[in-house]
Design brief:
Blueprint: E1 2-7, H1 11-23, H2 25-30, E2 33-39, E3 43-45, H3 50-55, E4 64-66, H4 67-70, E5 75-85, E6 90-95, H5 96-101, E7 106-109, E8 112-115, E9 119-121, H6 129-132, E10 133-134, H7 139-158, H8 162-168, E11 170-174, H9 178-194, E12 207-211, H10 223-235, E13 238-241, E14 246-248, E15 253-256, E16 261-263, E17 266-269, E18 273-275, H11 278-282, E19 292-293, E20 306-308, E21 313-314, H12 337-356, E22 369-373, E23 379-383, E24 386-389, H13 391-404, H14 408-423, H15 439-445
Parallel strand pairs: 1-2, 1-8, 2-5, 8-20, 10-17, 11-12, 11-17, 12-13, 19-21
Antiparallel strand pairs: 3-4, 5-6, 6-7, 9-18, 14-15, 15-16, 22-23, 23-24
Helix pairs in contact: 1-12, 7-8
Length: about 450
């Protein structure tokens, strides 16, 4: 029996397994092949919709796709691959059961392996960042950030200390890429709407600061649209600081490289990503940036029966200009969702062909462009050479990502939520107790801890 192990159930991993499920339908039904998917979470997160989930435009449960519901013909293991012995075709998987009960790790054998664990947030040794920073890469972080921002409005409204109020109403975002700009824009939109229900807070009381180390934001949409995005954000009284770095964030004070100091209770870190640490544990060949060296067929370079795509893989871009000299390496595909989806399809086709003994093909796709949301009814886009801004770009952003959202079920739910959001007011409730669901029970079990006896 041919066994295919897919490491990672994210955008590439889930779509690869889904396509394999279709291509190898006969083999899976007859039991002559199996597809095993390993991921720490039992769902795939569609990250382009995280800003809207944080702003309350989409329910968080609708930006995730349950792996077991979609991959009905695959074996889904909720766990983490901690080591790969490719010579022996064996992977070590640590599961929740192993962590809680002390059971040994699982040993999973395979014939073909697809390494697609994605990426993790790239942090820097900034003093205080590990304690104060909030990431924005998972649905849990999006929910927590929404609750946190609304909670800060409650703190600012109820405190009599002007320093606490000022810090609560100051929101610092580090990183001018998609994640940072879209998260800031959507949350500023939400907070601007929410403060109309606070008797003592106005939009002008809030400080929103975007810190970017380079000389522009949203480089994917081009210089012109990047400059427009800056004008749009600054027109909303958002402080955009280019060529500036975060030096420190200790004691709830964000210190920037230009000498500015901002007391703040909110520091969102979106300054890039790095390859998943599990890649180093596979002992497969990596490039200088820690990504797997791959050929145009999405095979790991020089290694048989090993495949990769997406953020984890350095795949040659066959549509780019060839290098000037033979010694110069060819440009690689950008690690974004546009390439990831198409690579997953080709990867699944090639793995299925390898199982059946058929020919494999190269991956080649010319980048079409980029779209970015700047909040409700605002956006920028640079697609097929055409530049859009404002409402048309925002609409294109929604239509494009709705089309790429896996499963009809999720598409219909998101479309229904957008429709209802146009008819009713925004929800501005903070469910902070989600992060500590036992707080009420703990209080009930020991009421004397919080109240003086009378």
């Amino acid at each position: 029996m041919a066994s295919i192990l897919v490491v990672g159930g994210g955008y590439v991993g889930m779509n690869t397994a889904l396509r394999l499920q279709q291509k190898l339908k006969k083999e899976l039904r007859q039991g002559t092949a199996q597809v095993i998917v390993v991921d720490p979470d039992p769902y795939m997160t569609y990250q382009p919709f995280l800003p809207e989930a944080a702003a309350g435009s989409i329910s968080p449960r609708h930006v995730v796709v349950p792996l077991r519901r979609v991959l009905t013909q695959c074996t889904v293991i909720v766990g983490e691959v901690t080591a790969v012995d490719h010579a022996a075709r064996r992977a070590t998987v640590t599961t929740l059961a192993a962590e809680e009960t002390g059971e040994g790790a699982l040993e999973v054998t395979y014939d073909e392996i697809v390494v697609a664990p994605g990426s993790v947030s790239r942090t820097l040794p900034v003093p205080g960042l590990a304690d104060a920073g909030i990431g924005f890469k998972t649905v849990e972080e999006a929910i927590a950030l929404r609750n946190h921002v609304l909670g800060q409005l409650d703190i600012a409204s109820s405190t009599r200390n002007p320093e606490v109020r000022d810090a609560a109403l100051t929101f610092v975002f580090v990183g001018g890429g998609y994640a940072g700009v879209e998260a800031l824009a959507e949350l500023e939109d939400m907070a601007r709407y929410a403060v109309r229900y606070y008797h003592n807070i106005t939009p002008e009381d809030m400080k929103w600061i975007l810190v970017e180390a380079t000389d522009r934001i949203l480089p994917e949409v081009g210089p012109e649209m990047g400059r427009y995005a800056i004008r749009e954000l600054r027109g909303r009284n958002i402080d955009v600081r280019l060529e500036t770095r975060l030096e420190s964030c200790e004691n709830r004070i964000a210190v920037l490289s230009d000498g500015s100091r901002f007391p703040t209770r909110t520091l969102v870190w979106t300054a890039g990503v790095k390859p998943h640490p599990v890649l180093a544990a596979t002992k497969l060949p990596l490039n200088g940036r820690g990504r797997l060296k791959c050929t145009a067929t999405l095979q790991v370079d020089g290694v048989e029966h090993a495949w990769s795509a997406g953020d984890a893989a350095a795949v040659p871009d066959l549509t780019a200009e060839p290098p000037a000299t033979p010694d110069e390496p060819r440009a690689t595909c950008a690690p974004n969702a546009q390439h990831a989806l198409r690579q997953a399809r080709v990867l699944a086709e090639n793995v299925a062909a390898a199982v059946r003994g058929g020919p494999i093909v190269d991956y080649a796709y010319k980048y079409a462009g980029s779209v970015a949301s700047l909040g409700l009814h605002k956006g920028v886009a640079h697609v097929y050479g055409r530049k859009l801004r404002g409402y048309p770009a925002w609409l294109m952003h929604r239509v494009y990502h709705l089309g790429r959202l896996p499963t009809f079920n999720r598409k219909a739910r998101v479309l229904a939520e957008w429709t209802l959001a146009g008819l009713f007011k925004r929800e501005i409730v903070s469910l902070g107790s989600l992060e500590n669901p036992r707080a009420e029970f703990e209080l009930a079990a020991d009421t004397g801890r919080h109240y003086e006896s009378t």
